Amino acid sequence: MYKLTESACLKAIKKGELLHAQIEDAFEIKIEDYGFFVCTAIHDGHQLSDELAANCALSSDERLYEEDPYTGEMIASMPITLIALDSRYEYDLNRPPETCIYNEAWGKLVWTKPLSKEQRQTSLAKHALFYRLLSAIIKKVEALHGNCLVYDLHSYNYVRMASEQTPPTFNIGTEQLDSERWQRVITHWHKTLAMVNLPNIQTRSAINEVFFGKGYLATVVKQKFKNTLVLPTEVKKVFMNEASGEVYPLVLDHLKEGLKEVILSNALYFSKQHKPKVRSNKTKLLSSKIDPAVLKLDKKLYQLATGIETLSYINPKNLVGEKKQFFAKNYNYTPEFTYRQLEIDPFEFREKLYRLPQNDIADISIQQMYRDVIDSYATKIDLLTTIGTDKFLYNSLRYYGEPSDEDIQMANFLLFAKPYEEHQERNIDAKAAKQHFLEALKVYNIQCKVEITDKIIASAMVDNGKKVILINKSMRMNQVEIDALIHHELGVHMVTTVNSDLQQLKIFKLGLPGNTYTQEGLAILAEYMTGNMNLPRLQTLAMRVIAVKMMVNNHDFSHTFNTLVNDYNSHVDDAFRLTARVYRGGGFTKDFLYLRGVKDALKAYDQGSLEGLYVGKTGFSYLKIINEMMARGMVAKPTYLPMYLKKEMQIKQNPILDYLMYSAH
């Protein structure tokens, strides 16, 4: 944001230029896109000049009580906003010039001595300036679109009200509106406001119940612009303690998110009712330009958190030797794994995380996404710093969670299913598997390395940072299993890695919260959808759930291993690998997420397009905002997709497997 003179600002608006600036230190104007609706917060300001503050008979807290704090934040996600920075006690923009400067307000004297003529003239000049700015914006919008819609947002104190009925959360004042002409839009606004969900608060919308919309802004617009509708809207101060001024951040965030949704919904409805050219969806009402604050935060977060790969720290360095010990001692031994040292100062890392400027992001949905990533990295660093200690399990439970009763029931359902396929010999070793991966890379047209190693527990894994597919030296598979592994590791994990490299925002390289279970769910779904899933594979995933539950219930390594071998007929090599996956680090609960992930992946696939989940390391719960950002042009559509999402691929049908998958989920 920069500073502009009035003349420069008006000139820019006339030319249709985009801007985000302060005008004469009194107003903040933002135009990210010349759409057909404008949002104002004319009582948001709190500032007084030093001269006026010294003469004011009211304290800062007394002034704040009657101002409308945070209303500017409530509209910050919108593409055209005009926000007052000065206190209404200097000049009230919702009163005419003749009465806009208070001598007395709400029963209290405002000034210790009368304002000078010069002081009054300065305030009146800023009052007039606001209406020149607002008029210029509306004039431009009407010229472009024919009609204009203004959301005039305020807030009100309710504790002092004596009423039998609880005051409404939202109040629309319509007394100055042409109700006959705009009735449908007003009704729609009224109904959608009532749908805003706030934590532990019953929301209700009303029309002319508390305030009646008699303010000067609505008067001016009605007189000057015949094709513009102003919706004067009051928000009850449920988002703060109105007496102390203390904000309730969770309520405010929900309110900002809710208002973003309902403003876009109502604006789209207005568009369909009163504008010739209809924008087809809500996201097209928003700007496609990425907020510079997002780019700044994204860069800082990536510089801070890049390279922190959980698996690179948690894979045991002495896995092969400890396996030999375990087998040599007849399965009655607890492996003592060793791990790579963490090169990060955890205290400094957390401090830097929470200093990142996430509050500068205007769009509440995008801001919340970055907040969630910051929080997840704070938890992740706790996980990494406790590898090999008693605290690791606690932090793993915080980060990944643990199997629910539903997860256990699903696992048991699959484990007790009877085999329905012929046994296939595992005649593909690591060297042959590498060739299969190299051939598949040609089909995907992806450039990356494939390496054989004895440093991993899994049969194969993707090193995201190095863009390498690692294959376990001791692995042996049959044809179905290697095809499944290719669709799993290459078709999802590597695909999302290379897609994330093509994104301007690096947050999709770092990974959104829940990306582990989303990635694994999508990867298992890819195995299933390409016809490379079988019952043994599903039962392996189910045994991981059982093993995690046993570990959480304090069973030791040997007990869990022997249970997998004796009760579930697992081969000793497979049982060791699975048990080691779960017990590494001190108790790694991640593995139960594979089965839960495929359940949610299957549900998401049945409900709509999964394309947005492949832009990088994403999460199911963020698909809505990712789709919005793709529609706005902030996120590139994925260049690479798994084979089953390509139209030319015929998805194989297997009625028995279909029954197992959908019955389990």
How would you characterize the overall build of this protein?
With 665 residues, this protein is of the alpha/beta class. It has two domains: 2-276, Aminopeptidase (3-Layer(aba) Sandwich), CATH 3.40.630; 309-343 and 386-664, no CATH class. It has helices spanning 6-15, 50-55, 60-66, 71-74, 117-145, 179-193, 216-224, 249-274, 292-305, 310-314, 319-328, 346-355, 364-385, 391-400, 405-415, 430-444, 479-501, 507-510, 515-529, 535-552, 557-566, 572-583, 593-607, 623-631, 655-664, and strands at residues 2-4, 19-23, 27-31, 37-41, 80-84, 104-105, 108-109, 148-156, 170-172, 205-207, 228-236, 449-453, 460-463, 468-472. Helix 1 links the parallel strand 1 and strand 2 (19-23).
How is the topology of this model organized?
Blueprint: E1 2-4, H1 6-15, E2 19-23, E3 27-31, E4 37-41, H2 50-55, H3 60-66, H4 71-74, E5 80-84, E6 104-105, E7 108-109, H5 117-145, E8 148-156, E9 170-172, H6 179-193, E10 205-207, H7 216-224, E11 228-236, H8 249-274, H9 292-305, H10 310-314, H11 319-328, H12 346-355, H13 364-385, H14 391-400, H15 405-415, H16 430-444, E12 449-453, E13 460-463, E14 468-472, H17 479-501, H18 507-510, H19 515-529, H20 535-552, H21 557-566, H22 572-583, H23 593-607, H24 623-631, H25 655-664
Parallel strand pairs: 1-2, 4-5, 4-8, 8-11, 9-10, 12-14
Antiparallel strand pairs: 2-3, 3-5, 6-7, 9-11, 13-14
Write down the domain tally. 2
Helix % is 40-55%
Order of the strands making up the biggest sheet: 1-2-3-5-4-8-11-9-10
Mean pLDDT: 92
The rounded distance between the terminal residues' Cα atoms is 50 Å
Give the number of DSSP strands: 14
What fraction of residues sit in β-strands?
A: 5-15%
Number of helices: 25
Low-confidence runs (pLDDT<50, min 5 residues)? none
What sort of overall outline do the alpha carbons produce when their principal axes are compared?
Answer: elongated
Which class best fits the helix and strand makeup?
alpha/beta
Major sheet: size, sense and barrel closure?
A: 9 strands, mixed
- Structural Rg: 30 Å
